[in-house]
């Protein structure tokens, strides 16, 4: 079931735009709170917070928005404003959060070198400016700052790797879905157009000599074209993610094999169906794949084999279903026609196997084995 979520990307983008505001608030509130604890400040008496201090705290966070212009520009402005706050001797506290967030953002966006160079420059500025405030460059302040910066860079790299993995998975799923839909459209169109083509030829041939038989062929064309449009609407509706109304007919499955056989009989191909084992409900994906494999195999027989009959055997085993479609036609390259690659792909996507080839006694066979996951 598809759900319309057209506004979701905008909501996500809106949340991202709130991050600088949140960081600005944390920096200003945190520094204000920390300024009331002189024991936690540097040895030099800190400069009292004023309008400029709050402007630097807010500006360093809001400058993160410059990432939409250029990542390096945002890195430089955030670093400069943070260093200016420290150089002017304002109270300590979480005044560096915007700087750390900007390093993470740069790495996630693929600017690892720029982030590393900025981190090194920021650390050097921190050591130099704290030394001017009377703090030993080798004190625990410098050690903690180095550990925090390195830890933030490593964390950002892990986030980026995970993001890349998720993006690749989404891209792979989208590719698989496009391939599945392409197979579905091909099977629908190839099958019905093949029947329409044959019936159109019959109607043209009999139009003058046997109008009643021509009428029957035209009725079959009408039904086949209606089925084609209906299945294409369903397939394209799923592709668009539109589900305003439920499908008006059941999805293709082995339960509808009799309807498929009747359509081929109308087109002049007699199909004998044999079922072995105990029939049972199948997983939806397996049921659809089985139906499409039989459909495509019979379409190939109808178009390439040059015969008027075929056999279909459906075998239910404990944890698999075996499909065997056989004809006594020309075999060889004529039967190795369109759609066999799609049959192989369908089976492979479910962990199944397909064997195709000419028969020693003549004709051609397609044998597909699809796992069903045990008894249902």
From TrEMBL:
<keyword id="KW-0418">Kinase</keyword>
<dbReference type="InterPro" id="IPR003594">
    <property type="entry name" value="HATPase_dom"/>
</dbReference>
<keyword id="KW-0812">Transmembrane</keyword>
<dbReference type="GO" id="GO:0005524">
    <property type="term" value="F:ATP binding"/>
</dbReference>
<feature type="transmembrane region" description="Helical">
    <location>
        <begin position="98"/>
        <end position="126"/>
    </location>
</feature>
<keyword id="KW-0472">Membrane</keyword>
<feature type="domain" description="Histidine kinase/HSP90-like ATPase">
    <location>
        <begin position="289"/>
        <end position="372"/>
    </location>
</feature>
<keyword id="KW-1133">Transmembrane helix</keyword>
<dbReference type="InterPro" id="IPR011712">
    <property type="entry name" value="Sig_transdc_His_kin_sub3_dim/P"/>
</dbReference>
<feature type="domain" description="Signal transduction histidine kinase subgroup 3 dimerisation and phosphoacceptor">
    <location>
        <begin position="177"/>
        <end position="242"/>
    </location>
</feature>
<dbReference type="Pfam" id="PF02518">
    <property type="entry name" value="HATPase_c"/>
</dbReference>
<dbReference type="GO" id="GO:0016020">
    <property type="term" value="C:membrane"/>
</dbReference>
<dbReference type="InterPro" id="IPR036890">
    <property type="entry name" value="HATPase_C_sf"/>
</dbReference>
<dbReference type="Pfam" id="PF07730">
    <property type="entry name" value="HisKA_3"/>
</dbReference>
<protein>
    <recommendedName>
        <fullName>histidine kinase</fullName>
        <ecNumber>2.7.13.3</ecNumber>
    </recommendedName>
</protein>
<dbReference type="GO" id="GO:0000155">
    <property type="term" value="F:phosphorelay sensor kinase activity"/>
</dbReference>
<keyword id="KW-0067">ATP-binding</keyword>
<dbReference type="GO" id="GO:0046983">
    <property type="term" value="F:protein dimerization activity"/>
</dbReference>
<keyword id="KW-0808">Transferase</keyword>
<keyword id="KW-0547">Nucleotide-binding</keyword>
<keyword id="KW-0597">Phosphoprotein</keyword>
<feature type="transmembrane region" description="Helical">
    <location>
        <begin position="21"/>
        <end position="39"/>
    </location>
</feature>
<feature type="transmembrane region" description="Helical">
    <location>
        <begin position="51"/>
        <end position="67"/>
    </location>
</feature>
<keyword id="KW-0902">Two-component regulatory system</keyword>
<feature type="transmembrane region" description="Helical">
    <location>
        <begin position="138"/>
        <end position="159"/>
    </location>
</feature>
<dbReference type="InterPro" id="IPR050482">
    <property type="entry name" value="Sensor_HK_TwoCompSys"/>
</dbReference>
